[in-house]
Amino acid sequence: MSENSACIVQAIGLSKQVPSGGQSLAILRNVGFAVGAGEAVAIVGASGSGKTTLLGLLAGLDTPSSGRVLIQGADLFALDEDARAALRGRLVGFVFQSFQLLPALTALENVMLPMELVGARHARDAALSLLARVGLADRMHHYPKQLSGGEQQRVAIARAFAGNPALLLADEPTGNLDPETGESIADLMFQLNREQRTTLLLVTHDEALSQRCHRRLRLHGGVLLADERI
């Protein structure tokens, strides 16, 4: 992170242990780093290295055994659950490997939902604009089961950007897609990220995808081994 960039997210001494067979299993060990505004940072490592656990902690979806997470200076775990949820709704967008669209809602309704939850005005107009931006204006009334995997991930990306988040967290966003579709989804995500000047934290096993970021955080056995500028 450059010295003059505002710090969007900061991990301080993050550790996570879970019980396993009567003992304690360390998933993350004293992980610390800071990410500046507008940075794109890849979190890489072998399966089981703690990547998804780290992303869940940064989002406040899980709680650490020790350590802190600051998002725009707010101490995430000093807040109660409702306040953490409100902060997420205001500042954080998500893209998941498994899309996580609500099956009973149309593409349009899925994109509108996060804006409606925070009482945003003109949610429908904004959702229509985003669906057009991701090339799905003609699919807005389709339900997830009527969409291909690539189309579902486009809806998920539109939904993630709907609240104009300061921080976008993406967990293997191309992991369930064929290479060609995955590449087009990555192009779209990075393009929207630049346009909206969002900060991106991306968990991926894809080295080519990680090369498109500014930095790479390399985890091994729950330890942050390297913080590499690309």
Give the gist of this structure:
With about 230 residues, the protein is an alpha/beta fold. It is built from seven helices and ten strands.
Major β-sheet annotation: 6 strands, mixed
What coarse outline follows from CA principal-axis ratios? globular
Whole-number radius of gyration? 17 Å
The parts where pLDDT drops under 50 for at least 5 residues are none
Number of helices: 7
Count the beta strands: 10
Order of helices and strands: EEEHEEHEHHHEHEHEE
- Helix content range: 25-40%
How far apart are the first and last residues' alpha carbons, in Å? 12 Å
Strand ordering within the main sheet: 6-7-8-3-9-10
Mean pLDDT figure? 91
β-strand percent reads 25-35%
**Estimated structural class:** alpha/beta
Chart the SSEs and their pairings.
Blueprint: E1 7-20, E2 23-36, E3 40-44, H1 51-58, E4 66-71, E5 74-75, H2 81-91, E6 92-96, H3 107-117, H4 123-133, H5 149-161, E7 167-171, H6 179-196, E8 199-203, H7 207-210, E9 215-220, E10 223-229
Parallel strand pairs: 3-8, 3-9, 6-7, 7-8
Antiparallel strand pairs: 1-2, 1-4, 4-5, 9-10
Helix pairs in contact: 3-4, 3-5, 4-5, 5-6
